[in-house]
Design brief:
Order of helices and strands: EHEHEHEEEHEEHEHHEHEHE
Distance between the termini: 32 Å
CATH topology of the largest domain: Rossmann fold
Structural class: alpha/beta
Strand content: 15-25%
CATH architecture of the largest domain: 3-Layer(aba) Sandwich
Number of domains: 2
CATH class of the largest domain: Alpha Beta
Shape: elongated
Helix content: 25-40%
Number of strands: 12
Length: 295
């Protein structure tokens, strides 16, 4: 079963390391692959031992054989429990984040496990997940240790400045695959707080006009995308301020919540503030690249 990824067609990539979070990710990956009639590709990246005096960065054959045997047993169990699922696998000696980002160029979707729930700080993302999200070439599902509503609507955040076209299109595809309704949630480009700080009535009117223009532009863009998905029922919800709180609140009733990687002012390599807020709290989140070279 040790097959490297050969193409980008019908592949759901999942990072595995034997942890509880990666086992959750595998279950989500299998569900997504069955929904898409795709192959699950399990990638087990073992961090090389560079920098430790006297240690070879490669693993010895006995260790690799043990890793391979354990992974094959796990795959066999998943195949027994999920008849019809197609699973391939790969073990590589590389930094996990690097290996996953590289493999993302050959997958339609990646699934990673979130880490534990911290009652003080909310959901805590693992370090590998944090490193992969800004650079993945394909959408990434992050699965936390909370149940999600399988038959709930698909929720997507739409940035008022950009319209988040990749995230919105992915959301339509998910809604079609799941046979669920779609709710598109957008904040205002300039919030009510910004407007209240402007003394001039003329300037406040300009803010209102800018918000109205952004809403109209994004609504028209959604209508164009919707033409490709006539069977999807959708609703656009524009909230008065930033969308993060509404997205987090509605994620509890969603089958899946979708956000783009970046806001309008977010530097490359970072995740936007709204997306980060949703990632920490929503049980099942997809982060969709908005600025890949393949767009």
């Amino acid at each position: 079963m040790s097959q490297a990824l050969a193409s980008k067609k019908n592949v759901v990539l999942v990072g595995v390391d034997g942890s509880a979070s990666s086992r959750r990710a595998v279950r989500v990956a299998i569900d997504e692959a069955m929904r898409r009639d795709a192959t699950v590709h399990m990638l087990y990246a073992i961090r090389p031992l560079y920098g430790l005096t006297g240690l070879d960065p490669t693993q010895d054959e006995e260790e690799m054989s043990e890793y391979r045997g354990n992974l094959d047993k796990y795959i066999a169990r998943m195949e027994r429990e999920n008849p019809g699922v197609k699973i391939t696998s790969e073990i590589t000696i590389e930094a996990p984040a690097y290996a996953l980002v590289k493999a993302s160029h050959h997958a339609d979707l990646m699934v990673l496990g979130g880490r534990s729930h911290n009652p003080l700080a909310g959901m805590v993302l693992g370090s590998v997940t944090n490193k992969v999200l800004p650079y993945s070439a394909c959408p990434v599902i992050v699965s936390h240790d909370r149940e999600h509503v399988a038959n709930g609507p698909v929720i997507v955040g739409m940035a008022p400045e950009t319209g988040s076209p990749n995230a919105v299109r992915f959301a339509f595809e998910e809604a079609l695959l799941r046979d669920n309704d779609l709710k598109i949630i957008s904040g205002r480009q300039h919030t009510s707080v910004t407007a209240s700080l402007l003394r001039s009535r003329t300037r406040r009117q300009r803010v209102d006009d800018a918000n109205a223009y952004a809403a109209l532009r994004n609504t028209k863009a959604v209508e164009e995308i919707a033409k490709d998905y006539p069977d999807v029922n959708y609703e656009i919800i524009i909230v008065p301020d930033h969308a993060a709180d509404v997205l987090v609140d509605k994620s509890d009733e969603a089958s899946i919540t979708i956000v783009g990687t970046q806001g309008s002012l977010t530097p490359s390599g970072l995740i936007g503030s709204v997306s980060l807020a949703v990632l920490r709290e929503a049980p099942l989140v997809v982060v969709v690249p908005e600025n890949t070279d393949e767009d």
